[in-house]
Amino acid sequence: MTDIDSAAVPLARVVRGDLVESVHRGHLVVLAPDGCTRLALGDPEAVIWARSSLKPLQAVGMLDAGLDVDGALLALVCASHNAEPGHLAIVDAILASSRVTAGQLQNTPDWPLDLESAAQRRADGGGPASLTQNCSGKHAGMLATCVVAGWPTDDYLAVDHPLQVALRDAVAELTGVPVEHVTVDGCGAPLFSTTLVGLARSFAELVGSSSGPRARVARAMARHPWHVAGTGREATRFMEAVPGLIAKDGADGVYAAGLPDGGALAFKIADGSSRPRPAVLAAALAVAGYDVGDLGATPVLGHGQPVGEVLPTFGPGAV
Prior knowledge:
Blueprint: E1 9-16, E2 19-31, E3 37-41, E4 47-49, H1 55-64, H2 71-77, H3 85-97, H4 115-123, H5 136-149, H6 162-175, E5 182-184, E6 190-195, H7 196-207, H8 212-223, H9 225-228, H10 234-241, E7 246-250, E8 254-258, E9 264-269, H11 277-287, E10 299-302, E11 305-312
Antiparallel strand pairs: 1-2, 1-11, 2-3, 2-9, 4-6, 5-6, 7-8, 8-9, 10-11
Pfam families: Asparaginase_II
InterPro entries: Asparaginase_II
Protein name: Asparaginase
């Protein structure tokens, strides 16, 4: 294993005019349905914080512990949502199903990611709230799991709480990698380490399951892509373009996806940038045999007009 920088290789180049302006380095792995490696760039064994890409794995842990939601509600438990009205209605439904309230959410208050929803909240005199933070679906699921399991809810974010112990175990089991590092995620929940290939392997486990909590999570995400992210978000757009695909972004340049054929992919942009993610995701899907058209296109602007593009270093259109 290496640190996140030492073995990183170029995954995307930013072209402005006729020059390469900058380079995004990182690590990437694409797995075939049989688990063999289709493509490895950088170090697939790099230990990472998978950030919100872990949410589907945590959702499996919640279902294993007794949470009983499906469809759009389960998709919201896996989501980094925009906090559009439809998202907030589902979070409220998860909370109401367990007779807990938004006031019991302990995730970090924030504005909606959706600009229109944030503007409307300001106009209505509101401010940052736990409900409108993008992880509120996960936290609502955590509270609901505690209620059904008979666990206390006031300290559900404590690393030694039975819920968090169960979620840590779920991450280790699905990835096949022991959790060796624990810290706090942006939303306040415990965050567990894994490896890049472990993350990819876990998404293969989800899409490759035909029944049980793993299949329920994959089915919810694939059937409700808008609830996993929201209007205009890349995860939603890619899942809508490829039926059966499940894709989950994570902060600081992380992405994971489970493919309809049972394969999977994961990558980490070493500098933490989100800019190259669509181009890298589209190229990785192409390596696996999935053409998403121009979804990976990321123009570079000059005076408001395209003067270049973010291009992958591998697959079709590589530079």
